[in-house]
Amino acid sequence: ASLKGAHISVPSIFKAFPLSLRKIFFVLSKLVVYGFLILLAYYGYLVLTLITGETLVTLEWVPQTFVQSVIPIASCLFILSETLRIPEDYRNLVLQTSGVEQTGDI
């Protein structure tokens, strides 16, 4: 869903704004998403440093750090996904197309 930009969006409302305003919203939305994902990766890493040496209660041979490492790893993968989508998203912004057929647009 992330690679296709199929998360929550309302392209029909977004298209109602003039292009200059849409460009500003585009940059702001990317900054908010990157900021959130960077914070998630950072604090996910901090959690890993706090639980070093602990294991799962039911599977004592599985370290907690292995299980919880999904948070910073997934955050970094989402950052990569968002970065790969920038050219297509910007092109769709300029062309006033949604890029992906989405149902339920308002």
Structure report:
By secondary structure, this protein is mainly alpha-helical. The protein has one domain (11-95). The chain has four helices and no strands. Helix 2 (19-50) runs antiparallel to helix 4 (70-95). The model is unreliable at 98-106 (pLDDT under 50).
Summarize the structure.
The chain is 63% helix and 0% strand.
Secondary structure elements and pairings:
Blueprint (H helix, E strand, L loop, with lengths): L10 H4 L4 H32 L13 H5 L1 H26 L11
Distance between the termini: 20 Å
Order of helices and strands: HHHH
* Overall average pLDDT: 84
Tertiary shape: elongated
The number of helical runs is: 4
Major beta sheet summary:
none
* Cα-based radius of gyration, to the nearest Å: 18 Å
Task: List key phrases describing it.
106 residues, mainly alpha, 63% helix, disordered C terminus
